[in-house]
Design a protein that fits this description.
The protein is of the alpha/beta class and 330 residues long. It contains 15 helices and 8 strands. Helix 8 links the parallel strand 4 and strand 5. Its EC number is 3.5.4.4.
Length: 330
């Protein structure tokens, strides 16, 4: 099977985890920022997490350099364009990218400017390549909550025009959902779709709570439901999409090794499982790599892949028109 040629969909990809190392060098030079090295390979090593990290924080530390150069409208637009370009060049037909606007205000950009820049870069790539996309606005847990509604409001003018959903990301504490009920409700009332990082480092109960309390239609990762019958059943009954990120899950120790990843068992049991990159640079991966790893590890067939691709279309936050377009590749 030619994995490169397969049509692919990535529903869980972080903007700040998917930069080209050379772009970091270019932007640092433009912005007169000091970097530890001018060697692209060294910079890449600083952005790529080890194959196995001692903990999630070790993985998250790899975002420091990208965030440093992502403080201007031009830099955000360029990085957005390049991510969609890179994805399109490996036959990704649809890409949902998430990022936290709170992380990009150090030089005075407003939330509206930050979001508009990301969407502008994406639209430029859509015009040049056979790829469609949307943005998901992430609230990074542990950052101040007083600006969350401002972020949601800033994205409203672009809802349906490049922005589609609201997300909670960052380090996962047990029972985190209670703290965010009012914010996800506010986002839903404004017209946002909801996806929540849950059941990655935390417990399966977090997944149940994300669905029950926060209205999650999809779950980022969700691997912990394998040990939580109630959460598992809720995901299955409500057809909640699971955004599996195989390489990332092994790196962060959410799963000890790929062969123990539950995504195949989930798929065989009829759950809506999708395959995603999480962070192309930090996890040193592509959609081609992720699909190949999963297909070969679990000896999946072309029919299995078609089912996963179809689930990805159905679980996407794309418009009906775009979904119809994507199904022609199935």
């Amino acid at each position: 099977m030619n994995y490169f040629e397969l049509p692919k969909i990535d529903l869980h990809c972080h903007l700040d985890g998917s930069l080209r190392p050379q772009t970091v060098l270019d932007l640092a030079a433009q912005q007169n920022l000091e970097l530890p090295s001018q060697d692209a390979d060294v910079i890449k090593n600083m952005m790529v997490a080890p194959e196995t990290c001692p903990n999630l924080q070790e993985y998250l530390d790899r975002f420091a350099l990208p965030i440093k150069v992502m403080q201007t409208a031009d830099s955000i637009e360029r990085i957005s364009f390049e991510l969609f370009e890179d994805a399109a060049k490996e036959n990704v037909k649809y890409l949902e990218v998430r990022f936290g606007p709170q992380l990009h205000t150090k030089q005075g950009l407003s939330y509206s400017e930050i979001i508009e820049s990301a969407v502008k870069g994406m639209k430029r790539a859509e015009a040049q390549y056979d790829i469609k996309g949307n943005y998901i606005l992430s609230l990074v847990k542990l950052l101040p909550l007083d600006s969350v509604n401002d972020i949601i409001d800033a994205g409203v003018p672009l809802l349906g025009k490049g922005v589609v959903a609201f997300d909670l990301a960052g380090a996962e504490l047990d029972n985190f959902a209670q703290e965010y009920v009012e914010y996800t409700q506010y986002a839903r009332d404004k017209g946002y779709r909801i996806t929540i990082h849950a059941g990655e480092q935390g417990c399966g109960q977090n997944v149940y709570d994300a669905i029950e309390l926060l209205g999650a239609e999809r779950i980022g990762h969700g691997v912990a439901i394998k040990d939580h019958a109630e959460a598992y059943q809720r995901v299955k009954d409500d057809v909640v999409g699971l955004e599996a990120c195989p390489s990332s899950n092994v790196q962060t120790k959410a799963i000890p090794e790929l062969k123990q990843h539950p995504l195949n068992a989930f798929h065989q049991d009829g759950l809506a499982v999708t395959i995603n990159t999480d962070n192309r640079t930090v996890s040193n991966t592509t959609m081609t790599d992720e699909v190949k790893k999963v297909m070969e590890q679990f000896k999946l067939s072309a029919e299995d892949y078609k089912q996963i691709y179809t689930a990805s279309v159905e679980q996407s936050f794309a418009s009906d028109e775009v979904k119809k377009h994507l199904m022609q590749y199935a």
